[in-house]
Amino acid sequence: MSPALAYSWFLPLGPDVHHIGTWPAECGTPSLDRLVDIAVTAEAAGCQEMLVPTSFHNDLETFTTAAAVLGRTSRIGMLLAVRPNQLHPVQAAAAVCGLEALFPGRIRLNLTTGGWAEDRWLGDFESKEVRSDRLEEWLEVLHEVLYADTPVRHKGRFYEVDGAALHRRPERRIPLAMSGSSPRARQLLSRFGDEYLMFAGPLPKVAAEVETLRATPGIGTAVRVTLRTHLVVREDEQEAWAAAAEIVSRVQPNVRATIRAQRPDARSQRAGQNELAAGDDLVVGPNLWAGIGTGRFGASVAIVGTPAQVIDRLLEFRSAGVDGFILSGYPKLEEARVLQRLLVPELLGRGLAPDSAVVARPV
């Protein structure tokens, strides 16, 4: 029997919209009750954790929101995104230790280098190369503070620490997820990371990237690969494609123009997502649709179809070397309910459902 699929969900820190690409957004900041409902539903649908993003443009902050939701749930974990320019590594270590003490085993970190325009809010104008150097030193200091038996003294290019010591260190190593396809990013992943995050795309492209990753010295099979994708699942395929079209039916021209004007580093995963979303044909593979990228930044691709079709595509990615998935839909709450109502029964029927997945009760 095939092992169960491993998948997680997304915790929105801004409006949980049905239609993307409107400005202002069609609804307001999600309440704590709504966020908890998303997490509880995702938990019941078999999700292992929630990806909690980071951006100063979000209505809510990553660590405080995650703590509030963790306090009202019992099992689901939080994958917390953080950039070195947002928190000093000693501050980050203290925050992580506090969350780990309160919610043991439910915290992981997703490290990114930055590079968004909002970095200027902090007076950060550094190049990608400098940001990578800073990330490496940030991780070095973080690990020393988290795990060293003696007070940390560090004097480097970016950080100087004199005698930092936590009264209570974590009882386990906090897992780190990272991304980036440059040789430097892969080197940092091999040294510090446990998981590689990548965006969905055409199956051959994903398979090639996983193969290249696995061939990188120091990585091999020790690092998990997780694929970030949206879902549009309905009982009928035509209904699913109609639902996908509805998501982008209100994208405003100025929003689309702003997205197309972005020029991320050509080597970055974001550039690859932008390229898929800028094509004349947004269907980039069987049941793969890049339309989400016409109305938002970041992950552009959705798997669109019936429960059987969606699971077939997920299994194809797994056969290509993907270990797990971070899923989402629009809106996050309603589509988490769809995940539980439509996908979980199909997964159970194929022997692919996680032990924690529960079939939704009829309303």
The termini sit apart by 32 Å
The largest beta-sheet arranges its strands as 1-2-3-4-7-8-9-13
Continuous helix count: 11
- Percentage of helical residues? 25-40%
How would the global form be characterised? Answer: globular
Sheet-strand content, in percent, reads 15-25%
Write down the overall mean pLDDT: 92
Give the SSE string.
EHEHEHEHEEEHEHEHHHEEEHEH
Major sheet size, sense and barrel closure: 8 strands, parallel, barrel
Unreliable sequence segments:
none
Question: From the alpha-carbon coordinates, what is the Rg to the nearest angstrom?
Answer: 20 Å
In total, how many beta strands?
Answer: 13
Assign the structural class, choosing from mainly alpha, mainly beta, alpha/beta, alpha+beta, or little secondary structure: alpha/beta
Task: Describe this protein with a few key phrases.
363 residues, alpha/beta, two-stranded antiparallel sheet
Q: What this model shows, in words?
A:
This protein is α/β, with parallel strands linked by helices and 363 residues long. Helix content is 38%, strand content 17%. It has helices at 32-44, 62-70, 89-102, 128-147, 183-192, 203-214, 237-247, 253-261, 269-277, 307-319, 332-349, and strands at 7-10, 49-52, 77-82, 107-111, 152-155, 160-164, 176-178, 195-199, 224-233, 283-285, 288-289, 302-305, 324-328. α1 packs across α2 (62-70). The mean pLDDT is 92.
Topology readout:
Blueprint: E1 7-10, H1 32-44, E2 49-52, H2 62-70, E3 77-82, H3 89-102, E4 107-111, H4 128-147, E5 152-155, E6 160-164, E7 176-178, H5 183-192, E8 195-199, H6 203-214, E9 224-233, H7 237-247, H8 253-261, H9 269-277, E10 283-285, E11 288-289, E12 302-305, H10 307-319, E13 324-328, H11 332-349
Parallel strand pairs: 1-2, 1-13, 2-3, 3-4, 4-7, 7-8, 8-9, 9-12, 9-13
Antiparallel strand pairs: 5-6, 10-11, 11-12
Helix pairs in contact: 1-2, 1-11, 3-4, 10-11
